[in-house]
Amino acid sequence: MPNPYVRRPPATSPALRRLRVPAPVLPTLCALLLLCALTLLYAGPAVAERIELTVGVERIDYPPYGSFRHGDYEGYARDLLDSFAIEYGYTMVYVPLPIKRLYQDFLEARTLDLKFPDSPDWHSGRRKGLRIVYSAPACSYTDGILVKPGNLGKGMGAIKTLGILAGFKPWLLDPPIDPKSIKVSENASISGLLGKGLMGRVDGVYANVEVARHLLSAMDRTDQLVLDPGLPHMTGDYRLSSIKRPLVMREFDEFLKTRSALVDSLKRKHGLGR
């Protein structure tokens, strides 16, 4: 007869017996459970989806500032804006457009979040009534009139036909040029424009000095067109601008200020600020 005071292990069903974990496996299982618990406890917040920003850029070859080549946008502007985007959690989507279309999409259709380069002085009449936010200067530039070395110092009287890039306006030069006093010859590319100047088809070329230097060097025609400092010219700053994203503009200004060493290194990389 069984002793009623002897404790026996409780009966278990075959299903429960199959769920028993062999003793040698228990330490590994406990370690895995602990690791999962610690991962959940100390894991940071989930990574938010990066916000896409559309950046309207000029569909021209404009080194070293920015060029659209081989189906991609490249140059100083690309490196600068990508560096900013990485740090502040954005994804830049570059939209290369002809200059006239770029102004239309940015100022009128307003399909773009940002525009680079930009300046409040460009097409100022079309900007009236718009709340456009401009960044601090991202880099400086000099625009002027390039001539053949033999024509240096002849003054504006020698410029009968001035070559300009389509969509650009030379009327901001100092002193101002009277648009009625000269003939203007437009070109869709700055390389083609410089070619006109080299061949003597125009008397002078209105261009960014740094861009002209880069492209003439690539053509192996360095110093065959030179800036005439006696002719109207101007200096200014390229800025980022936005109508729709004022917060992004404040962040970009912060980036330019706190990462000035990085910005300077990018300028040196692209041969700016010499």
Keywords:
274 residues, alpha/beta, D-Maltodextrin-Binding Protein, domain 2, 2 domains, 9 helices, 34% helix, globular
In short:
This protein is an alpha/beta fold. The protein has helices at residues 14-19, 26-42, 76-88, 99-109, 124-127, 190-199, 209-218, 246-258, 260-269; strands at residues 51-58, 61-62, 66-69, 72-74, 90-97, 114-118, 133-134, 139-147, 161-165, 183-187, 204-208, 226-227, 234-242. The model is unreliable at 1-10, 12-21 and 38-47 (pLDDT under 50).
Describe this structure in words.
The chain is of the alpha/beta class and 274 residues long. The chain has 2 domains: 124 residues, Periplasmic binding protein-like II (D-Maltodextrin-Binding Protein, domain 2, 3-Layer(aba) Sandwich), CATH 3.40.190.10; 95 residues, Periplasmic binding protein-like II (D-Maltodextrin-Binding Protein, domain 2, 3-Layer(aba) Sandwich), CATH 3.40.190.10. Helices cover 34% and strands 24% of the residues. The strands form 2 sheets. Strands 1, 5, 6, 7, 8, 9, 10, 11, 12 and 13 form a 10-stranded mixed sheet that branches. Strands 2-3-4 form a 3-stranded antiparallel sheet. The N terminus is likely disordered.
